Amino acid sequence: MEKMENCGDRACLERVHAHTLATLQKQNIPLLPEPWTLVDARATLTLKLPDHGLGIEKTTDHLLQDIAPSLNGSSLSPNYYGFVTGGITPAARIAESIVSLYDQNPQVHLPDQTVASNVEDKALRLLMDLLHLDQNAWSGVLSTGGTASNILGLACGREYVINQRIRSRQGENPPDTVGSLGLLRACSIAGVEDVHIYTTMAHSSLCKASSILGLGRSRVQHVGRSSSDIAFDLRELERNLEINHLNSVSIVVVSCAEVNTGLFATDGYEQLQVLRTLCDKYGAWLHVDGGKHHEVLHHGLERHQQLIPPVAFGLFARLLHEFPEFEKVAQGAEGMELADSIAGDGHKLLNVPYDCGFFFSHHKGVSQQVFQNPNAAYLNTANAVTDAIQSPLNTGIENSRRFRALPVFASLMAYGRDGYRDMLKRQIRFARAVAMYVYDHDALELLPEIVFHSKDRVLQDIFIIVIFRAKDKELNNELVKRINTGSKMYVSGTVWDGSPASRIAVSNWQVNPERDFSIVKSVLDDVLRSWSQET
Fold this sequence. Notes:
- By secondary structure, the protein is an alpha/beta fold.
- The chain has a domain at about 1-70.
- Helices cover about 45% and strands about 10% of the residues.
- The protein is built from 18 helices and twelve strands.
- A seven-stranded mixed sheet has the order 2-8-7-6-5-3-4, sandwiched between helices.
- Helix 11 (about 270-280) links the parallel strand 5 and strand 6 (about 285-290).
């Protein structure tokens, strides 16, 4: 294996760059590869490692001719509405190429060698500024995604609540913490028999995080007003906190459990204040799960429940508090600063590449207690000039990872608050246009109907998600497949009240409300017209 100095190696790199530019310049990027393309591509995947490599030229042929055509266009196209995929802004894409070129590891703060950790620090501060979080009050780290950020949140919460109980027994400065003692020993010293995680309609990633941390999936407990209600039952929450206070500790998670409708566990600043007060009273940690969503809708909604955007997206609604048009969705983002920690995904409304998540904490010292690297003198890189920056390896999970902060930094610098505000406005206006089309159509039904019972509610409450179904049951069973068949747009399927439903999630930076509404309307009109002719 030689250094890239020969013409063949450079030619392969140039081919890949040319392919990238040609793909980005396409007017209509295929949303999904043809089925036969997938079959053919899988057939080319080798089962055994070759003794003698193919060489870079043949490998490049394989990548460009077999693999690339078999990848979907979920991030490249503004008309991919499955999941909440987002995209990659041009500035983030440029930065991503630099990331691969220089291959930095920002986990270790090396102020005499690189500015990588400085860039990560500034990227996190810019993101805090974008979301109106006080840079002096919060610390942060970039993670692989929402799941990793939830692990960070629960780990810090576990450390904090158990350490508080140890302090109540041993004084303000106990010699050891959970991070040094281990969970079982710390719980024994603290007199803690259980760690409860109270939330509403928890996403599976929260249960996964609880399992990884040794807390247990079964300890994630629903405290909603009913079994299928996203809103907190505050009386039930306080009752549980009080009953279990003597021999247990608690973490309260405000979860973005229902992205299909935009329902959120609280309805603004006042309820977050109530949760904050309860957590302070009973020594609980308050975590905001802002990175995940459910694909399945449950039965019914309380008539008086307010529609609020889930935190994964609601955090970004903090950009819109000055605009009456978006007043309702902005209310859903109020009070997030009262939490002890916030977890989120970067690939969604921030529109930066996978993998990227973010974690913010009000308690920097707690993160260091959990994630510090002991007995590694070579990692001590303090510098008198820049030692205010803590090596991320002491505040996050990984000891080495890619320079994922650079696309975040570049995108925030390139577009600023106004750029991201404009992006979000376009996304909401497009979603509302689609919702109004569905609402007015005789053959379609906007869901949940108990919430969207008037045009005013549609125009006030729709955020970036539209869920709907066909009134004809037979058509509704095929609706998602028929919409996706033409590959002009892609929607994901879900379930509402026991019946299939279609879901449009708007999160790509390229959204053009007029152009994209025309595409959606055309596709739905064609599907309905075709069904009418067939029946």
